[in-house]
Each structure stands twice: as structure tokens, then as C-alpha cells.
Write a structure and sequence with these properties.
By secondary structure, the chain is mainly α. 79% of the residues lie in helices and 4% in strands. The chain contains 8 helices and 5 strands; from the N terminus they run H-H-H-H-E-H-E-H-E-H-E-H-E. A 3-stranded antiparallel beta sheet has the order 2-1-5. The protein has a two-stranded antiparallel ribbon with strand order 3-4.
Length: 313
């Protein structure tokens, strides 16, 4: 009986162990099933992530294509700007050539006018000399009319000075022959006529000297005024459209720029030192606002030296 009881107890313990093992197997199966479910969910998430990455890659490809298209457009725009710049350079060269031709034509016209003026001056001077000679001859004839016949013959030939000397010598001879009273009257008349002639000659000589001195002084002033800061400068077409001339001195350019600014009310009302650019000024000064007293640094780019004489268009 005791042995049978022990066997029963062993059998019960074995059954209990089997049941615990079965329970453990069931728990492990449940854990495995949960793990399988989690693995399936992770796989689904991976699929969605892959799809999203594929969409991002497609978007990147589209962006790259757009960048390539923009780059090609920029390259075409650069080529167009280069072509426009070349055209502008060619137009500037043409404008400079035209300005040079115009300047040469103007210079030729100036030279011709100066020659014509000189010719007119020489003609006027010759006419004045002729008039003075005629006046002297008329005065000599008047004196000769007052003198006797013997003196007229002596004064009819030669220069007025020689005539006066010969008249004096003839008067001395006549004085010896004539009476004392008549000779004294003739001497007085002759001395008066000679004195009047000498005074007029001195006045004419002084006038000529004064004219020469004034003309030489004016020429010196002109020569001095043409050199240095007052020398004319060739201007670009953009600046000439504002200033109204293709060449002029620097100070005149600045003055006319200020006139243009004040006429069009381009000064900033809050700060009068600042100037707001309109479309014309922006071609010369590529800035929205600039300081008026710093204008010259922008204008230098539109000026070039010109040593020849100048007349505005």
C-alpha cells in the first residue's frame, strides 16, 4: 500500500509538471504570436517609409531638373547680356566716332571763321589806313590852298612829312622875298597845321598800341582759361542728354547737373544733401540715392580728356 501511494504521488507530481510545461508552452506561443504581429506591423511601416523615400527621391529629381532648366536659362540670359553689352560697346564706339567727326567739322568751321575774321580785320585795318591817308591828303590840300602857288608845287609831291619840310623851306625863301607881316602869318598857319598832324598821329599810334595790348591780354587769358581744370572734357551720350552738350569743363558739368536736380525737384525733402535718381540720372549714376557733393566720383566714368578747342553743339 505504501509503495502504491508513493507511485500515485509521483504520478501526480509528474502531471503537475506536465501541466506547468503546457502552460509555459501556451505563454511562449502567445509571445511568439505577438512578436509575429509586431514584425508584420514593422514590415508595413518599412513599406510606407520606402514609398515615402521613393516620393522624396522623385521630388529631388524634379528639383534637379528645375535647377538644370534655371541654369540653362541663366546661361542664355548671360549670353544675351554679353551680346547686349557688345552691341552697347559698338554703339558707344559709333557715338564716339560720330562725336569725333562732329568735333573735327566744328573745328574746321571754327578755323574757317577765324580766318574769315582775320581777313575782315585786315580789310578793316587797310580801309582805316586808306581813310587816314585820305584825311591827311585832304588836310594837306587845305593847307596848300591856304599857301601861295610856289608852296603848292613843292608840297604836291612826296610824303606829308617831306611836304611839310619842303613847305617850310619854301616858306623861308618866300619870307625873305615877302614882307615881314605876310611872312609871319604864313609861318603861324604852317606851324598850326604841322602841330595838328603830329597830335593826330600820336593819338592813332596810342590807340593801336592799346588795341594790341588788349588783344594780347585777352589771348593770354584765353590760353590760361583753356588749360587745367577749365579745359573742356568729352562727355558720354547719357551725361550729354542731361547737361546739354557733348564737351565742356568739369565745373560747368557739375553746375548743370545741380540745375537739372533743382529743376526736377530730385532733392530728398528730409535731407537736402541727398538726391533721388530719376530714369535719366540712373543711366549716369546707377544708385537709387546719392550724396550731392559726392557726385564727381560717378561723373568721372562718363568723362574723357579732349585737348582740342571746343564749341558746344
Amino acid at each position: 500500500k505504501i509503495s502504491s501511494l508513493n507511485e500515485k504521488r509521483e504520478n501526480l507530481s509528474l502531471k503537475e509538471e506536465n501541466t506547468s510545461i503546457k502552460k509555459k508552452k501556451i505563454a511562449v506561443a502567445a509571445v511568439i504570436s505577438t512578436l509575429k504581429k509586431e514584425i508584420i506591423a514593422v514590415g508595413r511601416e518599412n513599406k510606407t517609409l520606402k514609398e515615402e523615400s521613393i516620393g522624396v527621391a522623385r521630388e529631388n529629381l524634379n528639383l534637379k531638373k528645375e535647377k538644370i532648366a534655371v541654369a540653362t536659362e541663366n546661361s542664355t540670359l548671360k549670353e544675351e547680356t554679353i551680346a547686349v553689352g557688345r552691341e552697347n560697346k559698338s554703339l558707344k564706339e559709333e557715338n564716339t566716332t560720330v562725336a569725333g567727326e562732329n568735333s573735327t567739322i566744328l573745328l574746321k568751321l571754327l578755323v574757317d571763321k577765324e580766318r574769315q575774321i582775320k581777313d575782315l580785320e585786315t580789310q578793316i585795318s587797310s580801309l582805316k589806313n586808306e581813310e587816314s591817308k585820305l584825311n591827311n591828303e585832304q588836310k594837306c590840300t587845305v593847307c596848300c590852298d591856304e599857301m601861295p602857288e610856289t608852296k603848292r608845287k613843292s608840297t604836291s609831291v612826296g610824303n606829308p612829312r617831306k611836304r611839310a619840310k619842303s613847305s617850310l623851306s619854301d616858306n623861308e625863301k618866300a619870307d625873305k622875298k615877302a614882307t615881314a607881316g605876310g611872312s609871319k602869318k604864313l609861318k603861324k598857319k604852317i606851324s598850326r597845321s604841322v602841330g595838328i598832324k603830329k597830335a593826330k598821329k600820336k593819338e592813332s599810334n596810342t590807340k593801336l598800341k592799346n588795341k594790341k595790348s588788349t588783344s594780347t591780354g585777352a589771348e593770354k587769358v584765353k590760353k590760361k582759361s583753356i588749360t587745367g581744370y577749365t579745359a573742356p572734357v568729352e562727355l558720354s551720350s547719357q551725361l550729354a542728354a542731361i547737361v546739354g552738350g557733348y564737351a565742356m569743363p568739369r565745373h560747368e558739368v557739375v553746375k548743370r547737373m545741380w540745375d537739372y536736380i533743382k529743376e526736377n525737384n530730385l532733392q530728398d525733402p528730409e535731407d537736402k544733401q541727398m538726391v533721388i535718381c530719376d530714369w535719366k540720372l540712373s543711366l549716369v549714376i546707377p544708385v537709387e540715392r546719392f550724396r550731392g557733393f559726392g557726385m564727381s566720383k560717378y561723373l568721372k566714368q562718363h568723362m574723357s580728356g579732349w585737348n582740342a578747342t571746343f564749341v558746344n553743339r
